[in-house]
């Protein structure tokens, strides 16, 4: 690398990579776009590699840019943590913790975890992302996250996982749409209902597809939309969808009914990267999550994973 290292330009590079646009990054940094462009041109010159490919909607990382992003994230994170580590010889949780949580836990577990964690560890700055399982896995592997809760499935390499809870999946819909439907339904009975789902690849979509194939049927959907839209459509009484049981906390039980789907279940696990040290902040967050699941499980039909597996 030619010339002195300018860590500020590294941080600006990471912001551009996340924003996918020089214009959006310049607005966030409150600098002129030409200044940012010149700074990135100088960084590319120092590294001897092209970091971005430009397209109509902005920029995307080149192969070299993606490799540099991973290294820059690790180096800058280590630098940022040095003052905290020196200031606290007792290794109490400090610094910034990037957390990924599934949407279904938002109203039942995530909000409580944030509340408890902030009260217990005020020196930690939480950066919480609500992400579908597959995206959470990808963000962990790409090192955007320090810790996340993911739906366990085959092929998830590079992670250390600890089971958190076993969760049934269920049919959610307005009471008037589910009038006369029993409290539990089979996969075959589910096939007769018009479902609204987020498109593949999502864990629920893939799980249902596999169950339908096992029964010799094909999963059909009446509406495909992103997860936020499907949630709002169910809340508005427009149609029916499938979520994990943890999503019950997202809906008003007076308006939306939950019906268990017999057979499939989801094992949620706490995940961290296997080849990176787990920080005290991440370890503490995992402990808070487990305590909340233990506390809430008597009022829920799902169970802590260690109980469900015994």
Automatic annotation (TrEMBL):
- Taxonomically, which superkingdom? Bacteria
Q: State the UniProt keywords alphabetically.
A: DNA-binding, Transcription, Transcription regulation
Q: Which GO terms describe its cellular component?
A: cytosol
**Keyword Transcription on this protein?**
yes
The UniProt record lists the keyword Transcription:
yes
Q: GO MF terms on file? A: DNA binding; DNA-binding transcription factor activity
Residue stretches making up the HTH lysR-type domain: 5-62
According to the record, the signal peptide region is none
What is stated as this protein's family in its record?
Answer: Belongs to the LysR transcriptional regulatory family.
What protein does this entry describe? HTH lysR-type domain-containing protein
Tell me the organism: Chelatococcus reniformis
Q: What is the lineage of its organism?
A: Bacteria, Pseudomonadati, Pseudomonadota, Alphaproteobacteria, Hyphomicrobiales
């Amino acid at each position: 690398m030619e010339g002195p290292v300018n860590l500020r330009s590294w941080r600006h590079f990471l912001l551009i990579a996340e924003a996918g646009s020089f214009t959006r990054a310049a607005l966030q940094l409150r600098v002129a776009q030409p200044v940012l462009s010149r700074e990135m041109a100088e960084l590319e010159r120092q590294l001897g590699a092209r970091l971005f490919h430009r397209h109509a909607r902005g920029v995307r990382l080149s192969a070299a840019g993606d490799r540099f992003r991973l290294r820059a994230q690790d180096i800058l994170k280590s630098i940022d943590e040095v003052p905290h580590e020196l200031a606290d010889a007792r290794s109490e949780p400090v610094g910034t913790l990037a957390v990924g949580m599934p949407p279904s836990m938002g109203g039942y577990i995530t909000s409580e975890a944030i509340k408890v964690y902030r009260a217990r560890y005020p020196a930690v700055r939480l950066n919480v992302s609500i992400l579908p399982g597959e995206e959470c896995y990808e963000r962990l592997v790409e090192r955007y996250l320090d810790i996340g809760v993911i739906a366990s499935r085959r092929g998830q390499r590079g992670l250390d996982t600890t089971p958190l809870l076993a969760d049934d999946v269920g049919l959610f819909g307005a009471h008037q749409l589910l009038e006369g439907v029993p409290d539990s339904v089979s996969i075959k009975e589910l096939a007769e209902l018009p479902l609204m789902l987020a498109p593949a690849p999502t864990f629920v979509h893939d799980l249902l597809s596999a169950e339908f194939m096992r029964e010799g049927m094909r999963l059909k959907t009446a509406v495909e939309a992103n997860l936020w839209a499907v949630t709002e459509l169910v809340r508005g009484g427009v149609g029916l969808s499938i979520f994990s049981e943890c999503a019950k906390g997202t809906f008003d039980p007076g308006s939306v009914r939950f019906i268990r789907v017999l057979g499939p279940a989801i094992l949620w696990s706490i995940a961290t990267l296997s080849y990176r040290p787990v920080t005290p902040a991440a370890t503490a967050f995992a402990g808070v999550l487990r305590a909340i699941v233990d506390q809430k499980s008597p009022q829920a039909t799902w169970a802590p994973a260690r109980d469900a597996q015994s």
